[in-house]
Amino acid sequence: MAYTDKQKLIETNVNYTSKDFSTIKADLIEYTKAYFPDTYKDFNETSPGMMLIELSSYVGDVLSYYIDYNYKENLLATATEKRNVRRLSEFLGYKVPNKTPSVVRLKVTTTIDANSDGTPNYGQAPSSIDSGLQIASNVDSQILFETTSEIDFTSSGSGDPAISAPILNSDGEASSYTLTRYVRAVSGQTKTKTFTISSPTKFLELDLGEDNVIEITSCIDGAGQEWYEVDYLGQDLIIEERNIESRGTGGFFSSTVMQSGSLSPAKLAIFRKKPRRFATRINSDMKLELWFGSGTNDTSDELLTLNSTQIANSKYNQAKAKFI
Known about the structure:
Elements: H1 21-35, H2 48-73, H3 82-91, E1 103-113, E2 134-136, E3 144-147, E4 162-163, E5 167-168, E6 174-187, E7 205-207, E8 219-220, E9 226-229, E10 237-248, E11 251-253, H4 255-258, E12 264-273, E13 277-282, E14 288-292, E15 303-307, H5 308-311
Parallel strand pairs: 9-13
Antiparallel strand pairs: 1-6, 2-3, 3-6, 4-6, 5-6, 7-14, 8-9, 10-11, 10-12, 12-15, 13-14
Helix pairs in contact: 1-2
């Protein structure tokens, strides 16, 4: 309602900047003395009136604290709770990793015999050890490391396995050799989790119930179709590989043409349009969730080959490809 000149509010001595217990208590005492001088005069700490004043001061102190705390947690620069920092970062477009594992360069050795002429018998070397090899820590056997690539002692090229000096027998002849390979391993282990979906659901959310997930390596449905992880559900292009092809006037040519030396190489990206995709996020309980889309009738699996000029234009920006 509007106020006339005669209805203007009279200023009081209420201090709205007081926010802690002691200042609120002091202000309430002064307010009581100013407005109730004849009603209450006993300001002894043990009086019932002072009990009510201190209880009011306590409530005001707590309310002031949570008001300031809530405001502080709404700013990324001042937030202290992990879940709030994560949510504010996601709001700004940064996807916070769930866990960061320890990574080691693992040394793997094998021993092979020597031939009759003293040369290494490479035929005894293991052909391939698949990725996923688990190794327990020698400090704590509960800590497992898992390899992320295969170990092949028979491959040739720049990555040839290092070979040790021959191990001599009692006659001074070469009896065996030690081959060495190095492989990347992370502190973790691969696990599989299965969900039963009774009926198709738009924006389906699957809670893994785990707070120590490093990454999702694969997602397969009951029909054997693979689903692909994307940064956001609107992203429908998955970078499949980067390839160096040849480029001529007006188009792209196969690498066999480039071998003739008549054409210069071009940097290409191989993309695939995937209708089946999901995103991951951390829920309020700090557990990892898989978040699927609304469903689509588009079952195409289109292959796209783009160069650096095309990827800089139009909708293909969403794939966020980096070229080398």
